[in-house]
Amino acid sequence: MAVGGVRVATASPRAGFGGRVRELFDRESVLGPLFVTPALIILVLLVAYPFAMALYFSLSNAFIGRPSHLVGLRNFINLWDSDAFRQTFQNAFVFTGIAVAFKVVLGISLALLLNQQLWFKRMIRGAVLLPWVIPTALSTLGWWWMFNSLYSVVNWTGLALGIMDPPGPNWLGQKYYAMAAVVTVNVWRGLPFFAITILAGLVAIPKELYEAAEADGAGPVSRFFYVTLPLLKGVLAIVVLFSTIFTFSDFNIVYVLTHGGPINSTHLFATLARQIGLETGRIGEGAAISLYLFPVLVIVVWAQLRFVRRQAY
Amino acid sequence: MAGFGRRRFWGRVGSHLLLVPFLIFALFPFYHMALTSLKTDRELYDRQAVPLLIRQGPTLEHYSKLLWDTAFLTWTKNSLLVTLLATGVSVVIGTIAAYALARLRFFGVASFGTGIFVTYLVPTSLLFLPLAQVVNWLGLADSKWSLVVTYPTFLVPFCTWLLMGYFRTVPKEIEESAMVDGATRVQALMRIILPIAIPGLVCAVLFAFTLSWNEFIYALTFTSSSDEITASVGITSELIRGDIYFWGSLMAGAVLGSVPIVILYVFFLDYYVSGLTAGAVK
Q1: Stated pTM of the model
Q2: B18 CB-near residues (< 8 Å, 6+ apart)
Q3: Contacts of A111 in chain B (CB under 8 A)
Q4: Rounded to whole angstroms, how far apart are CA atoms B270 and B254?
C-alpha cells in the first residue's frame, strides 16, 4: 500500500515533458545505446576505421605524400624477398617463444615462493611488481646502460665472479647476445604479471585438496604436478595468451635497446613496420608488415573467446 | 612441538633466501639507474671504478643539467596534461559503457561486448601507422592533443572491461530497491552503484593513468617537436645527440620520469595488485 501510495504521489510531477524524458531514460532500450555511444564512436573512428585503412594501405603502393593505387597482395608477397623481413619473421617467433617460456617457468616459481609464509609479504610483492609499472621505455634505458659495450655492469659482475672472460660479450653488438638482451628485458618486465596472476590462481586452490593428496601419500613434487598444475591450467591459459600477443607485438624494448640491430637481428614486426613505414616512407609496405601481427591476434582472440571467456558473452 | 616450529621457521628463511635472486633481478636495474644518475662523470667513466657503489661522493649535477639545460619540465608538463585528460575522458566513457554492458539489455549489447573485448586485445603497435594518418587529417600532427584523442583507443576498452567486472559484483537487488523507491536508473547508478564500486573506479583511474603515462609508440610517432613530446619520448630521443650519450642525465631522466608512477604505486599498491589480477594486462 505504502509503496503504491508513493508511486501515485510521484506520478503527478512526472506528467510533463521532463517526466516523459525521465521515463524514456529509464528504458533499457534507450539508456543502453545512449551509454555505449561514446565508446562506440571511439571504437569505430579510431580503431575500426584505421584498421580498414591499414588494410587499404597494405594493398596499395602508398608512399608518404604521394597518391597511391591498389597493387593487390604484392606488398605481402614481395616482403618475402627482403632479408630484413625474413629475419624479422624468424626473430618474432624466437623472441616470443623463448620469452614466454621463461616467463611461464619463472612466473610459476616466483608465484609458488610468494604463496609461502613470508615476513614482509606486502613489501616483497611491491618490489616484485615494480618492473611492470615503471614506464618501459625508461626502464629499458637503464638496461641499455647496463649492456653498454664499455661500461657494462653485467660484464663487470661476470668478470668479478669469474664466469666471463675479459672483455665479456658485446651485448648489443653481436647478434645472439643482442637477442638474449632483448629477451632478458622482456622477461624482466613481463614476469610480475605472470607471477601475480598465477599467485591469484594459487590462492584460489582449496587447501583440502592438498591435505587429501598428502593423506594419500603424495610428496611435494607429485602434489605440484597432480594438484597445483592441473588447477592452474585456466589461469595459465589466460596469462600465456595475453602475453603471447603483447610479446609478439612488442615495440618499446627493441626500439630503445637495439633499434632492431645489429643487422636486423632483433627487429620485430612493430619496429620494422615503423622503420619501413615512417623512416623510409613506404607506408604500404609498413602497413603490410604490421598486418603480419594480425593472424596471431586472431588466433589469440579466438582462443580467448572460445575457451577462456566462454561464460562472459 | 618445538621441533615443528623450528622446521617452519627455517622453511620460512629458506623461502626468503630463494626469493633473493628474483628480488635482485627485479630491483637491480632501478638501483643502478639511480646510482648512475648520482655519480660524477669522472667516476662514471672510470673503467677501474667499482660500478656498484659511489666512491667519489654523490652529485646532483646531472639532475640540474636535465632540469635547466633541457626541456624536461615541458615534456613532463605535456605528459601530465595528456595523461590527466585521457584518463578522465576514458574513465567516464568506460564507466557508462561498462554499466550498460553489465546491467542493461538492449539491441546489440552482446556484439558490443565482444567488440570491446577484441579491441582490448589489439596491441597499439598494430594500428599506429594508419592512426598517424588520421591524426594528420584531424590537423593534430605534431601536437600533444593527438595523444589526448588517441589514448582512449586503448584506455576505454580497458576501463570498460575492468569496471564491467566490478559492476557485476554489485547485487542487482540494491539497485532495484532504489528504483522501487522512486529513483531513476541514472540516479540509482550515481547514488548507489558508483559509491559501491569506488574501489573499481580507483583501480580504473590508476591503471589508465599508468598506461597513458607509460605509452611510448603513439607519442613517438605522432609528436616530434620539443614543445609537444612527452617525458618518455623526450628522454629517449632528445638526450642522445649523435654518438654522444650523457649517461648521467639520461639516467636522471629515467628516474624523474618514473617518479609520478612510483608515488601512485607506493600509495595504492594493493589496488595495483588487485587490478592486475582482475584482468589488467597491458
Answers
A1: 0.90
A2: A113
A3: none
A4: 25
Q: What is the CATH number of domain B70-277?
A: 1.10.3720.10
Q: Using alpha carbons only, give the angle B3, A119, B258 rounded to the nearest 5 degrees.
A: 160
Q: Rounded to whole angstroms, how far apart are CA atoms B204 and B215?
A: 16
Q: Which residues neighbour B43 within 8 Å (Cβ) at sequence distance 6 or greater? A: B49, B54, B55, B56
Q: Which of residues 62-91 of B touch A (CB under 8 A)?
A: none
CATH topology of domain A83-308: MetI-like fold (1.10.3720)
- The domain limits of chain B are 70-277
At B3-31, the pLDDT tens digits run 667 888 888 888 899 999 999 999 999 99
Which residues, at least 6 apart from A192, have a Cβ–Cβ distance to it below 8 Å?
A128, A129, A130, A131, A132, B26, B276
Which ipTM score applies to this complex? 0.91
CB B248 within 8 A of CB B37: yes
Long-range contacts of B233-241 (CB under 8 A, 24+ apart): B233/A137, B233/B75, B234/B70, B234/B71, B234/B72, B234/B74, B234/B75, B235/A137, B235/A138, B235/A141, B235/B72, B235/B75, B236/A137, B236/A138, B236/A141, B236/A256, B238/B70, B238/B71, B238/B75, B239/B66, B239/B70
Domain residue ranges in chain A:
15-58, 83-308
The pairing of strands B240-241 and B244-245 is: antiparallel
Subunit contact B269:A250, Cβ cutoff 8 A = no
Closest partner CB to B26 (pick from A122, A131, A135): A131
Touching check for B251 and chain A: CB below 8 Å? yes
- C-alpha cell, A229: 598444475
Mutate to test the interface with B, among A28, A42, A282 (most CBs of B within 10 A): A42
Predicted confidence (pLDDT) per residue in B117-140, tens digit = 889 888 888 899 999 989 999 999
